[in-house]
Each structure stands twice: as structure tokens, then as C-alpha cells.
Amino acid sequence: MTVRNAGAHRLWIRNPLAILAEDSAGGIVVEGTRIVERIPAGGQPATPVHETLDASRHVVIPGLVNTHHHFFQTLTRAHPAAINKPLFPWLKALYTVWDKLTPEAFRLATRLAYTELLLSGCTTAGDHHYLFPKGLEASVDIQVEEARALGIRAFVTRGSMSLSDKDGGLPPDTLVQDDDTILSDSERVLRIFHDPAPGAMAQIGLAPCSPFNVTKRLMRESAALAERFDCRLHTHLGETLDEDAYCLALFGQRPVDYLEEVGWMNPRAWLAHGIHFNDDEVARLGRAGVGVCHCPTSNMTLASGLCRTCELEAAGSPVGLGVDGSASNDSSNLMEGVRHALMLNRLTYGAEKVTHLDALRWATEGSAACLGRTDIGRIEEGREADLALFTLDELRFSGAHDPLAALVLCGAHRADRVMVAGRWRVIDGHPVGLDTRQLRERHGELARRLFGTS
Ligand SMILES: [Zn+2]
Predict the structure, then answer these.
(1) Which stretches make up the Amidohydrolase-related domain (predicted)?
(2) Euclidean distance between CA atoms 390 and 18, whole angstroms
(3) pTM higher than the cut 0.85
């Protein structure tokens, strides 16, 4: 039930061209940070509103929720050392480049990724940050500060790497921290930034990077810390066949057995990629309620494989979408990810099995479920007013008949308006209060200076 805030501003988003919500052809009313009313065709708001937005040019969908990214990688897109390689050689080529990351470059990379996501219709931005070289110990702090400045909802996971190449891991020694340092900083950022309440603008999760660069102790103790602070757990798992071989060689077990042994088979956990699971593993993950973030663009770029989205969902796992890091995508456009999810999954399951509504559901409700949130991801009374409004004015949409299907099939990639917690953060296709040209110039300059090849 919605608790009304009598003094709050009430906005009627009126008569949209189309809307992804039941019985809402007349639009919706937003009061304060929440949706308070859906209006059927021809209807009027139950109580007077302060403002009306004519949405007759707009297709309205719930704000998209991104459940996997690595913002810092916006600085190494299309990098010659890494292009045209599968995951392990790709990672090894980039680790030595990322070693040079500075706080200023990281701040700009974060701002740029949030902005790209916002412009694509994303209202909750998850990031998996696992790089803490010397000088970048306060990375999580930077990510929360930047999200607050832009007004986007942030889900920052405190990532980690503690096994370097000298211990049988993949990254160089300069990029790893010891387990105790990681755990004490995890506790610090949880205490300062994690807000478990509905409507939270910032949440923290714990995210040891992957089986091939952390210790089992770190996995176990992260799970215990997550219980104490009521937060989520996230890691990469099942991305490539190389990972299967690595786990078998080093631990004598497959990735899901590893996950079970370290105490992660529970609904707090969601996994990035989740591709190479057998039938038994899919059933076990589903029974445990472990979520999976499908990253179609990255999976195609690195040729990692086909996620078993439909089987995982049927088994009980929440399935969400993520753009993944900008060095394996190489953009941060979640609406583009929705289109890629539709196409890639049709290739897997057939044209009748996966629809545009499935792909949109993964990017909204499914992603929200991965993050353990029931206050976002749908347009209905009582949920947060997180919305993405697209127009169909570009040439690519001309002649389209079903507006919601057109968003996905014709390739919408830039929202006209984006609302987060009841406030417009994108208007007329531009982020409110941010100079994108200046951001582009400075970010590009830092990327060239730090990681360029000239
Ligand atoms: Zn990733």
C-alpha cells in the first residue's frame, strides 16, 4: 500500500504513446519519489496534480537496471592490446595497462559510465569494481560521490583480487590486496554507504572478482560479512570453458561446486555471465535462488558462449542484464544490451520463445531481483518513480507499428527523458547539469595519456 505524502509535488505523465505497465494507457502519477497512481485509458488522476507532462510522443518503460559493469574500463575501449582475444589472454593483456589507473582518471571514468547508462535509460547502475592499485584505495567512495552528483541510483560492489600470478592467479602482484585489507575495507564501505532500506539511492555489495583471482578464505569471509550487513554477494562465474579447466586444475572441482563449498549457494548471490553450467548445476542454482546477470554484448565480443537464461529462470534463478565492462562491450548502453539479449537468445532458443517483452523484463524486474530489490523494476503504485521515456522520432523508427516492440527491434539507444526517484535526470536527451563535451574531452585526454599507444 502506498503512503501518501500530502505536501509532495504531484506530476501526471499523461497519455503516453505506449507504456510498459498494466491498465495505464492514461499515464501515471508521480508523487515525491514514488509512483502513486496508474490511470486507465481516458481516466483522470484521483486527486489534483501540480504539473502535467504530455507524453503522447513517449514510450514509457521502467528505468533499466544494470547488474554488471566495470566503469574503469571506459578508459581502455577498443584497446589494440586486447581486441580480438578471448577472456584469459584479453585479461592478461589489460592487467598491465590498468596498473596505471589514477584517482582522477577513475573519477572521470565513473562519471562517464554513469552518464552513458543514464542516457540509455538506465536508472540503477551496478558496478563491480575490483581494481585497487596504490592510491586508489577510496574507489568505492568516489563511485558513491559521483552517483550522488548525477542523481542516479548506485549499486556499487566492493570487488577484490587477492591471488596474483605468483600464487597461481591471473593478475600481476601490483593489482592484488591481501585478504585482511580487503575485508576491513569492505566493512568500512558497508558501514558508511550501504543503505538496505527501500528507496535507497546507494547500496553496497561484496564482490570477490572470480575463482581465478581470489582465495577461498576471502569468498567464505565475504559471505559471512554479507550476512552481518544484510548485503548482496556478486562474482564472475561460468564465463568461459578456460575457467572450468582452471577450477578443475587448481581446486579439483567445477565452478558451481566451488561456489557451494565457499557458502555462496543462496539468494544473496548473483553471478556475472553464468554460461557454462550443466543441467544439474542449473537446477541447483535455481533451487538456491542464485541470480544470474546475462551480459549478451560482452559474451558475443569475447565469444564466451550462450547463457542458459530460459532454463535458469525456469529453475528459479532471477535473470538480469548487464552491459559488462567497457573493454569487452565496448559501450555502456543498456538499451542496446536489451536488443542484443533478444537476438542472442533467439539464436539459442528460437524466434517464438524469446520476445521483446522478455528482454525488457530481464533488464528491469529481473535485474532488480538480482539486486534483491522490490522497490524498483516495475511501473506500479508504491514503487520508486524510476522511468525511461523514449521518442520514436528518428528515421530508424519510421513505419514502426508496435511502439514497445519498436524500441527493441528498431534499436532505441538514447532516452529522451529519464527520471530517478521522481526527479528528471535526463531532459531532451541531455543529462541535467552536466557538460558532456567537457567530460568527453577530459576523459579522452586521460585515457590517451595513461593508456594510449602513441
Ligand atoms: Zn565482468
Answers:
(1) 59-424
(2) 10
(3) yes
Distance 9 CA to ligand 1 centre (A): 40
Residues 156 and 91 both lie in one domain: yes
Spell out the per-residue pLDDT of the chain, length 454, in tens: 444 566 789 999 999 999 999 999 999 999 999 999 999 999 999 999 999 999 999 999 999 999 999 999 999 999 998 888 988 888 888 988 888 899 999 999 999 999 999 999 999 999 999 999 889 999 999 999 999 999 999 999 999 999 998 988 888 998 999 999 999 999 999 999 999 999 999 999 999 999 889 999 999 999 999 999 999 999 999 999 999 999 999 899 999 999 999 999 999 999 999 999 999 999 999 999 999 999 999 999 999 999 999 999 999 999 999 999 877 889 999 999 999 999 999 999 999 999 999 999 999 999 999 999 999 999 999 999 999 999 999 999 999 999 999 999 999 999 999 999 999 999 999 999 999 999 999 999 999 998 886 5
Q: Ligand 1 centroid vs 46 CA: distance in angstroms?
A: 46
Tell whether 50 and 119 lie within a shared domain.
no
**Residue 180 and residue 103 share a domain:** yes
Q: How far is the CA of 126 from the centre of ligand 1 (A)?
A: 11
User: Ligand 1 centroid vs 437 CA: distance in angstroms?
Assistant: 28
What 3-state DSSP class applies to 139?
Answer: helix
- How far is Cα of residue 442 from the mean position of the Cα atoms in its chain? 25
What's the CATH number where 392 sits? 2.30.40.10
Domain count for the chain: 2
CA 59 to ligand 1 centroid distance, Å? 30
Q: How far is C-alpha 439 from the chain's CA centre?
A: 22
Q: How far is the CA of 1 from the centre of ligand 1 (A)?
A: 37
**Of 166, 167, 148, 214, which Cα lies nearest the Cα of 186?**
214
The boundaries of the domain holding residue 395 are 10-62+379-431
Alpha carbons 8 and 50: distance in angstroms, whole number: 9
DSSP assignment of 349-390, as one string?
A: H-TTT--HHHHHHIIIIIHHHHTT-SSSSS-STTSB--EEEE
Burial of 172 per CB tally in 10 Å (0-12, 13-18, 19+):
middle
Contact (CB, 8 A) for 2 and 33: no
Whether residues 245 and 126 fall in one domain: yes
Are 146 and 282 part of one and the same domain?
yes
C-alpha span between 11 and 421 (Å, rounded):
13
Q: How far apart are CA 416 and CA 352, in angstroms?
A: 30
Binning the chain into helix, strand and coil, the percentages to the nearest 5 are 40, 20, 40
